[in-house]
Amino acid sequence: MTDTRTGAIVRSRLEDARRASRALALATGSQREAALEAIAVAIESDVEGILSANERDIVRGRENGLAPGLLDRLRLDENRIAALAESVRHIAALTDPVGQVVRGSRLENGVRIEQVRVPFGVVGAIYEARPNVTVDIAALALRSGNAVVLRGGSAAIESNTRLTEVLRRALSAAGLPAHVIQSIDDFGREGATELMRARGLVDVLIPRGSASLINTVVSESTVPVIETGAGVVHVYVDADADAATAASIVVNAKAQRPSVCNAAETVLVHRDAAERVLPALLEKLRSAGVTVRGDDEARAYSPAIEPAAADEWSTEHLDLTLGMRIVDSLDDALEHIAMYSTHHTESIVTNSVRNSERFLAEVDSAVVMVNASTRFTDGGVFGFGAEVGISTQKLHARGPMGLTELTSTKWLVRGDGQVRG
Amino acid sequence: MTDTRTGAIVRSRLEDARRASRALALATGSQREAALEAIAVAIESDVEGILSANERDIVRGRENGLAPGLLDRLRLDENRIAALAESVRHIAALTDPVGQVVRGSRLENGVRIEQVRVPFGVVGAIYEARPNVTVDIAALALRSGNAVVLRGGSAAIESNTRLTEVLRRALSAAGLPAHVIQSIDDFGREGATELMRARGLVDVLIPRGSASLINTVVSESTVPVIETGAGVVHVYVDADADAATAASIVVNAKAQRPSVCNAAETVLVHRDAAERVLPALLEKLRSAGVTVRGDDEARAYSPAIEPAAADEWSTEHLDLTLGMRIVDSLDDALEHIAMYSTHHTESIVTNSVRNSERFLAEVDSAVVMVNASTRFTDGGVFGFGAEVGISTQKLHARGPMGLTELTSTKWLVRGDGQVRG
């Protein structure tokens, strides 16, 4: 960390968080659950204050010409605040991961060893101007026994400051140290840089947001990062795929909720399936409002298919645009996926056992599917109760992350005087 | 990665490793086992070539004034080479972690999800001038289905080059791509820098060696790092500790093998135990050849105790030197440990259930012990069969790392046309 005045203040907040994390680690699961309930009540009791802080952000955002989509993500209303409190209660009700025994054994010399889940300690979060993420991350951290240092987008600073105050007061009232939740929003970019360099004070950093935000954190941080990533997600329609199944999966994967990372961006169609599969598929995509952009061969099947953009295959559209490419073979599809995938989720539609097993084995992504919509890659769907994010890296967590992924482990060793011979 | 000629060559080797890793991931466990056996045989068949390469390193090392300890670590002889081949056979015989099912379930809609262990892909290793690490890391990587990029200390370049050639030829002969094992020793520091920046080509980087080497890798690398760390390891002798148990554990923890990271560096003695425990403890330490350096209060118990150095409490001696401090209470001991521990291993010697449970709960280290020697922190002792290193970080792996810790996971999802509602 740097030697500036900002550096010193940020460092002292992180040290406060570190000390608070030690106290929090000793709190029982039910104390943390009670604190979360207190936070939900506190949010519900401060609707007016939160709305008025949020309104100041909205006004400033409008003045600064913030895009309508970003303004919408920034905006809170009574319903959204009620949903925040509900989400906190939902997280409070989840199974406590802390103290779970992962494995253990008794060595021949009688020493017992046991690996148990423990909180990381201090979790840092860097995210964009979405006040709901402030509450969400703080609640997930608290449920898993971690202190949290928040750094939200500057456009949400008034909302985040108010929410952080509400959360910290509720923590104190519930008998836990307020320093368990820290914000460094007031230090802008410099604060974020300090957070990324705070190795030893912060145990893990979670960036949530755009690909460029995540890339910045990954390349600048000396604190270990869990990368929750962009999804250039593929569906491959194999030679013998059932036409109705293919249409249903591709349309669901693209259009059921196009703005999220598990939505499909590219469909690869085996040449031998194209004539059989494409008419119904294209018709269903059209009625769902999807614009299809294809390579030359795909475009030969329908005048409605627009030409693929130069960077089509590496683009995460996050809207109702779908790239389409005709491939010669499963190998061709695997090659395309190896080249362009962001290793999030890919699905094959096929009736061939051999091809489905090859696809499962050879695609190097967090989630690999056969005959299912890529929209299933989700912590809620997988039964985790909550989702911290979807990890596209291979270290520590891969795919949907639940509370368990916010913990580390520690080995407890109990002897009665044994020494090594 | 940079745009230099070195950058281009290193990148092309990493790309070769990446492609080879995809082929390796499809090899069966028994193919990888057979390749390891072929490597063991190849090492045994090239004793002369390996010894002559090693001799050139030793001569150059002597000319360059390499310290005797480093020369000894660098030196190979017939016995050591035989031990290398034996170690490869031992690793070949370990249970294959690839394909193990971690968890799974059937969702209500009939979709089956299953989390299985998969290789990382490409593992990078940066280490010092110890030829045995070259063979050890390559064998562990291969057993866990990973390609490996090696960067050993320049003082061992002749030995490492020869060993890498032997390993690669054996791989080819066994029908696996030689590119599964890559070395970038010929590019010195610039090569290491390229490796640390090769995010996307290398999945995880493991530094093995001194604290300064590890710190460099941690701060310069954009590739995720597993930190295997230094051990400033503590034994705390509680107020009511049994004197014989305390002496036996402290002496074993310090002196049984002082040069390794799980050896104790500091003993903290509760004031109420000092008079009872110290005479026998100091006598046993003396006969084991241990030099004790203490704070003023400790020195009052024996003229043989030397004064503690200014940086005594943060020093990893790795020799027969032990720091000793008298503390007022368990809280005092916990405070000292929180301040100076490198979060590797700490042990309490006590008869108090309450204090042992507090110690286990409050000490934030990879391994926390009650009435046992810190020397037990070891992959072999824990039953892992092999040890990749001892992780002192909290992400992915903590404590002794076995083959399992060299794998990631992937979710396999099997449906029959399900889409999200």
UniProtKB/TrEMBL annotation, chains A, B:
Gene3D superfamilies: Aldehyde Dehydrogenase, Chain A, domain 1 (3.40.605.10), Aldehyde Dehydrogenase, Chain A, domain 2 (3.40.309.10)
Keywords recorded for this protein, A-Z: Amino-acid biosynthesis, Cytoplasm, NADP, Oxidoreductase, Proline biosynthesis
EC numbers for this chain: 1.2.1.41
One Pfam family, short name: Aldedh
GO molecular function list: glutamate-5-semialdehyde dehydrogenase activity; NADP binding
Residues that span the membrane, as ranges: none
Keyword Glycosyltransferase: no
Aldehyde dehydrogenase domain boundaries: 10-312
Location(s), subcellular: Cytoplasm
Substrates-to-products reaction catalysed: L-glutamate 5-semialdehyde + phosphate + NADP(+) = L-glutamyl 5-phosphate + NADPH + H(+)
Signal peptide (UniProt feature, chain positions): none
A Gene Ontology biological process term: L-proline biosynthetic process
InterPro entries linked to this entry: Ald_DH/histidinol_DH (IPR016161), Ald_DH_C (IPR016163), Ald_DH_N (IPR016162), Aldehyde_DH_dom (IPR015590), G-glutamylP_reductase_CS (IPR020593), Glu-5-SA_DH (IPR012134), GPR_dom (IPR000965)
Top-level taxon: Bacteria
GO CC terms in record: cytoplasm
Pathway: Amino-acid biosynthesis; L-proline biosynthesis; L-glutamate 5-semialdehyde from L-glutamate: step 2/2
Function summary: Catalyzes the NADPH-dependent reduction of L-glutamate 5-phosphate into L-glutamate 5-semialdehyde and phosphate. The product spontaneously undergoes cyclization to form 1-pyrroline-5-carboxylate.
Similarity comment: Belongs to the gamma-glutamyl phosphate reductase family.
Listed name of the protein: Gamma-glutamyl phosphate reductase
Gene label: proA
